[in-house]
Design brief:
The structure is a single chain. By secondary structure, the protein is an alpha+beta fold. The chain has 7 helices and 12 strands. A 12-stranded antiparallel beta barrel has the order 1-2-3-4-5-6-7-8-9-10-11-12. Helix 6 packs antiparallel against helix 7. The protein is elongated, with a radius of gyration of 45 Å.
């Protein structure tokens, strides 16, 4: 018994030492490991810390210094690359009502390939109406200006009604001075002519467009046969803005006051605007003047041609030839009655006004039996009121 107790006492320190070692291994707690972690953290702090003497290198500039920093120039003074600009905006981003995005704009541009200049211009007008807050307004308006500069010198835009379809646009063919107006438009016209030796003529006319292709007119005109009260109508059976072409039938009735007799004056006319410089307007007309109330019956042949060049937005120059003759009814071989005149002059278009003012010289170039004057000067004024008076049809 005593021997057993003695052995038990001797074994207690060994058991405690073994248990302590087992607990230390199970917990994984090692003082050496703790020392290594502290060294690693110190190493990280040492690497992150600024080098000695560089403490000021991490200081942010104050507000004044920040304003002075150069970031490579003013972005507004640099033209951004188109694709980069679109990519930065985002394909599907929309900022608000009436605003497009890159995807919409790109799809619209892709559809422009098969359109002519007029159709593209109208398409862009519609695009701006649908997306008034478009991100690309400046780019679109530059493109529209390029198209209109080459076509018409002005944008096809009604300020009150937005865009106009080609079928509703006016050709704005230049009005002749001596010849008849062949473009059915609402306007007023007055002119005064003074010739040598003692020739005085004055004309006043109003024309109202019932439709884009049809108009009626009333006028007082001092023709070579005397003063005339006139009414008439014209119909443009071709009036194409796409072709810049017009073909018109004219039917005028007049009453000559001294001597008094009625007459019927039918004519046909054609005109076209060529895309040369600011625009070259060419037109011709011809017909007869049937003096119905005269005894014997008389028929005159009338007509002529006009060429007008649009030198600038405010200046037009033109040359015009008018003919007036009839067959001789005298017995024997006599030449025909005739009086043909060459007219040349200039017209001014006041900025922003729907009007023209002209000044010209009339020179007889061929005449037989008739001699109304030996030269004359003529001034006229046209005022267009298409937007003031609505059309009936």
């Amino acid at each position: 018994m005593r021997l057993s107790l003695l052995l038990a006492c001797l074994s207690l320190p060994l058991i405690s030492s073994t248990a302590f070692a087992q607990d230390e291994d199970e917990d994984g707690f090692d003082l050496d490991d703790f020392d290594e972690e502290e060294e690693d953290e110190e190493e990280v702090e040492r690497l992150d810390a600024p080098a000695e003497g560089d403490e000021d290198s991490l200081d942010m500039p104050d507000e004044d210094e920040f304003d002075d920093l150069d970031f490579g120039g003013d972005p507004e003074d640099e033209e951004l690359d188109f694709d980069s600009e679109l990519d930065e905006l985002g394909e599907d981003e929309i900022g608000g009502e009436g605003e497009d995005n890159v995807g919409i704009y790109r799809d619209f541009v892709d559809n422009m390939d098969d359109l002519g200049p007029e159709e593209e211009l109208i398409a862009w007008e519609r695009y701006l109406e649908e997306y008034p807050n478009t991100l690309f307004r400046d780019r679109i308006e530059r493109r529209m200006d390029e198209i209109t500069e080459g076509l018409y010198g002005q944008r096809i835009r009604d300020p009150n009604a937005g865009y106009k379809d080609a079928k509703d646009q006016e050709i704005e063919l230049a009005r002749p001075l001596v010849l008849e107006n062949i473009d059915p438009r609402t306007h007023g016209h007055i002119s005064v002519e003074l010739g040598i030796p003692a020739y005085l003529s004055g004309n006043a006319e109003v024309e109202y467009a019932l439709a884009r292709q049809m108009s009626v007119r009333a006028a007082y005109r001092n023709r070579y046969t005397g003063g005339n009260l006139e009414v008439g109508a014209k119909y443009a059976f071709i009036k194409s803005k796409r072709l810049n072409l017009i073909a018109t039938g004219i039917a005028d009735f007049r009453y000559n006051t001294d001597p008094g007799y009625p007459a019927f004056r039918p004519q046909v006319a054609v005109g076209k605007v060529f895309d040369i410089g600011g625009g070259l307007h060419v037109q011709a007309q011809g017909g007869v003047d049937l003096e119905l109330g005269r005894d014997p019956f008389s028929m005159r042949y009338v007509g002529g041609a006009n060429i007008t060049y649009i030198a600038s937005e405010t200046v037009q120059v033109f040359a015009e030839g008018s003919l007036n003759y009839k067959d001789s009814q005298l017995p024997g071989d006599y030449p025909n009655f005739q009086f043909h005149v060459l007219t040349f002059g200039i017209k001014f278009v006041p900025g922003g006004q729907p009007m023209t003012a002209g000044l010209a010289a009339n020179v007889p170039v061929a005449y037989q039996y008739w001699g109304y004057h030996f030269g004359a000067v003529q001034a006229d004024l046209n005022y267009y009121a298409d937007d003031l008076l609505p059309k009936v049809f």
